[in-house]
Design goal:
Blueprint: H1 2-29, E1 34-41, E2 46-51, E3 54-58, E4 61-69, H2 90-117, E5 121-133, H3 138-142, E6 149-153, E7 156-157, H4 161-169, E8 176-182, E9 185-191, E10 194-202, E11 205-213, E12 216-223, H5 227-249, H6 254-257, H7 261-274, H8 276-293, H9 302-314, H10 322-353
Parallel strand pairs: 1-3
Antiparallel strand pairs: 1-4, 2-3, 5-12, 6-7, 6-8, 8-9, 10-11
Length: 358
């Protein structure tokens, strides 16, 4: 639990500081006065330092952070003082808002690229070693455990991960006797893969096929790469994650694809058990998700601010009044709180049912 808490706070801390640093550094470049750089929400707790006009603080609830720019909340001032947010042209304000999500995307990309040169990256080839056993599955019932190496299925020697998956996928509804190596001992287990429908793309067309699954995730082969290969693979992983996020959100199975704070803690726990490589991968993926989700046009999020500045541009520079701004912000806050309540309730329901995404 202590290890999980440490990695959770480390992950959230790195993601929040990087995201807010994007806002901070571009605001400073644009000549805006930044009054506070805060990690966390709630009342001011610890003042770490003060540099120039900026106070660097820690607040007690570590689920986010903010950069407070002078004049950002003054909406009715037609002649804002120099150095304040609304004294700057609209393109600079847009740049400051965009800098946060861009920094989150960049952080994820940099982590993946550096991993390739240091701890290594998954190269997309499964191994015949169990990385995770999903709760409530046949794999859990039959006693398969994380770290087990599958060496034989129905007396057939298993050569590698691809061979293992081919045998299991082709054995839906059939009883398998699986010999695994566990802590220098051999254990014989028995289970029946359940049949699942899987969607694949063949020759540009979506095809539904059926295959057997026990309910575990195989470990992926990790390989250290050259600097150039690391950049190439890091780019590919980042691109695939960015493209996958809308697919996960706008589908009938969105409840199974999204998670809130409870899911993040659970996934941090799983990553911590598997070591630094998995923690870094999770951190990078979460940072990329944060960058994309912050661009959604919901008031309070960065995308909501961009939407308001677009409306201002359409109105030829006329900003919404303070009353209108407050109404929009309250709507955005209600939407975010509703989403948070829904995803947290969904997390708890899946946790109780043993279906938390791994």
């Amino acid at each position: 639990m202590a290890q999980t808490l440490f990695y959770f706070l480390l992950t959230i801390g790195v993601l929040v500081v990087a995201h807010e640093f994007g806002h901070f550094i571009v605001a400073k470049w644009c000549g805006m006065r930044v009054e506070e750089f805060a990690f966390g929400f709630g009342p001011k707790w610890i003042v770490l330092a003060r540099k120039g006009d900026t106070e660097f603080t820690i607040r007690p609830f570590p689920l986010g952070g903010f950069v407070r720019i002078a004049g950002m909340e003054s909406h009715d001032d037609d002649n804002p003082p120099p150095g304040t947010f609304f004294s700057k042209p609209i393109w600079q304000r847009n740049a400051v808002v965009l800098a946060g999500p861009i920094m989150s995307l960049l952080l994820g990309y940099v982590i993946f690229s550096i991993m390739g040169m240091t701890v290594g990256l998954d190269i997309g080839k499964p191994m015949n070693r169990v990385a995770q056993v999903l709760p409530g599955t046949e794999a859990e019932r039959m006693g398969l455990k994380m770290g087990d190496v599958i060496v034989e299925i129905n007396k057939e020697p298993i050569r590698d991960g691809e061979h293992m998956m081919k045998v299991i996928h082709g054995s839906a509804g059939k009883r398998l006797f699986i010999r695994v190596k566990r802590d220098n001992e051999f254990v014989l287990l028995s289970g029946v893969p359940k049949e699942y429908e899987v969607e694949e793309v063949q020759n540009g067309k979506k095809v539904i096929k059926k295959e057997g699954r026990l309910g575990f995730i195989p470990a992926q082969q990790v390989k250290r790469l050259s600097p150039w290969q690391s950049l190439v693979v890091g780019t590919r992983i980042t691109r695939n994650l960015i493209m996958a996020i809308p697919e996960h959100l706008f589908t009938r199975k969105v409840k199974d694809n999204v998670g809130g704070p409870v899911a993040i803690v659970q996934m941090t726990h799983v990553a911590a058990k598997e070591g630094l490589h998995r923690v870094l991968s999770f951190m990078a993926a979460l940072s990329i998700s944060l960058g994309i989700l912050n661009l959604f046009p919901i008031p309070i999020l960065d995308g909501g601010h961009l939407l308001l500045y677009f409306v201002e541009w359409l109105r030829r520079g006329r900003r919404l009044t303070a009353k209108q701004q407050m109404a929009v912000q309250m709507v955005g806050l209600a939407i975010l709180l509703s989403i948070l309540v829904l995803v947290t309730a969904n997390d708890i329901t899946r946790l109780i049912a043993g279906k938390m995404p791994q």
